[in-house]
Amino acid sequence: MPAPAGTKRVKGVSVFRPFVYGSIAKLFDPNARPPGINADHTHQWTLYVRGIDNTDISYWLKKVSFKLHETYTNSLRTVEAPPFEVTETGWGEFEVQIKLYFIPEANEKPQTVWHHLKLHPYGPDAEAQRERRDPVRSQCYEEVMFNEPVEVFYDILTSSGPLGTVGRGKGGSKGSKQASYASKKGLESNRTAELPFEGVYSQKEEGKELDRLVEAKKMVESMVKEEQSRMEDREKLLTELRGGEKGTVKAR
């Protein structure tokens, strides 16, 4: 029996879309507080869901709900158009539930991520950051994966954004199924979802992170060797001391 219209899925194909979610907070200047702000509030902050480098994600994302701390009036904030963000003021950090709702054509259930609203800087430069009142940003990279999307949604995904697809199943080389499907539908199949060379999430930054990991590994290996050498020296000293004690006993 054929699938109902709008529910037939593209078999053996997964399409992913990257995005970022997070928050940015700014400490109020006590000499220039905005009028009407609660006297206890120390920061203004913004929660957001965005595309990489602010690229458009509204072609697959319909709305976003942010579940704030229960002390806020109307703690469940739903944003139905970009920019998908909420701005508020407050004094404390808390966990935020962020729920992503996809466009109706997706025929997919909402997905949920969690974010810790961060107001205060951490690390060795934290005090200097506080004095300068630098914005405190906390951001996560995420990818939403649509496994075997319905055909109409596949058309929307691959005609409106980079073709981040992964082929699965038997028969054909990796990606052959989505390529043939796109060709049949007259869609572009030469787009890519590879990381750009430069930017916050890029091949360049990925390379720097790999270099840092390599250096950290070398440092740990060096520390392990030093500790092993110290242990060997202590073992030798202990052996010598035990030998000396035996010689003293015999002399008596």
Plain-language structure description:
This protein is α+β, with helices and mostly antiparallel strands. The protein is 30% helix and 28% strand. The protein has 4 helices and 9 strands; from the N terminus they run βββββββαβαβαα. The strands form 2 sheets. Strands 1, 2, 5, 8 and 9 form a 5-stranded antiparallel β-sheet that branches. It has a 4-stranded antiparallel β-sheet with strand order 4-3-6-7, with no helix packed on it. The protein is flat. Residues 168-194 have low confidence and may be disordered.
Spell out the blueprint of helices and strands.
Layout (H helix, E strand, L loop, with lengths): L12 E15 L15 E8 L10 E7 L8 E4 L4 E7 L4 E8 L8 E6 L9 H7 L3 E12 L3 H10 L4 E3 L8 H10 L17 H49 L1
Antiparallel strand pairs: 1-2, 1-8, 1-9, 2-5, 3-4, 3-6, 6-7
Averaging pLDDT over every residue, what do you get?
83
Radius of gyration: 28 Å
Strand content: 25-35%
Low-confidence stretches: 168-194
Number of helices: 4
Helix content: 25-40%
Protein structure class: alpha+beta
| Spatial shape | flat
Order of helices and strands: EEEEEEEHEHEHH
> In terms of quaternary structure, what is this?
single chain
Largest sheet: 5 strands, antiparallel
Please report the total strand number as a whole number: 9
User: What distance separates the N and C termini?
Assistant: 101 Å
